[in-house]
Design brief:
CATH class of the largest domain: Alpha Beta
Structural class: alpha/beta
Order of helices and strands: HHHEEHHEHEHHEEHH
Shape: globular
Number of strands: 6
Strand content: 5-15%
Bound molecules: iron/sulfur cluster
Largest sheet: 6 strands, mixed
Length: 240
């Protein structure tokens, strides 16, 4: 049974967490006992062997896809890139994040979401009790658009088959689409992220939760609460 001290400790943890994120007020949902319960039940489950887990096959297929992409020159984004940022994480992930494209740090390191925006995504992942290595993170375009501009339609068109194949191989239980480009490209909709977020859509039978791109929070830190709320719905779906 939960003691009074445990309740106080949990509430204190929750308040410190929100303060850390820059909130000046506390959301009603996600506080107190339910906050603890969410974090305890949060780890992203892997497919059970009974369900036909084929992690090594998936990892091999992802490797083959990376080899197929090779030193890709299918669109003009190849011209300024240092590295192709393929994506990373568990081939057997139940949760997949799809972002827009690599930024400067990602281009240098060849890994997705390792810059400032990546820290915000990591924070969300960790605070939800997930582990970065248990989820899969990829982008719509795999080469950095110059000056961090949004990718053009033809660049998205050239690169989309790769992220589609990644999704097909991994078959996550839920996808979180980060920002306008990821949401609109995956779902083929024009709805702005401010209206799409918080509602589940479907991509090839997979529920997709659009939410703001973490880079948005560099300018609007207090809006992080919206993605926190969106991730609560994802958590619920993963645990269903
Ligand atoms: S963005 Fe995609 S399609 Fe364009 S060059 Fe890079 S890997 Fe190829």
């Amino acid at each position: 049974m939960t003691t009074k001290n445990e309740i106080i400790r949990e509430m204190k943890n929750a308040m410190e967490f929100y303060k850390e994120l820059g909130f000046e007020y506390l959301p009603v949902k996600g506080l107190g006992l339910s906050f603890k319960k969410e974090r305890e039940s949060a780890p992203v489950r892997k497919s059970s062997p009974e369900a036909g887990s084929d992690k090594s096959d998936k990892a091999e297929l992802l490797k083959m896809l990376r080899e197929e992409i090779g030193d890709c020159r299918r669109c003009r984004l190849c011209e300024g890139r240092k590295n192709i940022v393929f994506g990373e994480g568990s081939a057997d992930a139940e949760l997949m994040f799809v972002g827009e494209g690599p930024g400067k740090d990602e281009d240098i390191q060849g890994r997705p979401f390792v810059g400032e925006a990546g820290q915000i995504l990591n924070n969300l992942i960790n605070k939800r009790g997930w582990k970065r290595e248990e989820v899969y993170i990829a982008n719509i375009v795999k080469c950095r658009p110059p000056g961090n501009r949004a990718p053009e339609d033809d660049e998205v068109g050239a690169c989309m088959p790769f992220v589609e194949r990644q999704i097909e191989i991994i078959r996550p239980k839920v996808i979180m689409a980060l920002g306008n480009v990821a949401t609109q490209s995956l779902l083929r909709i024009k709805t702005p992220i401010s209206r799409a977020r918080g509602n589940f859509f479907v991509y090839k039978d997979i529920p997709v939760m659009p939410t703001f791109h973490p880079a948005y929070f560099l300018r609007n830190p207090k809006e992080k609460i919206l993605t926190w709320e969106d991730s609560a719905k994802v958590l619920e779906k993963l645990n269903a």
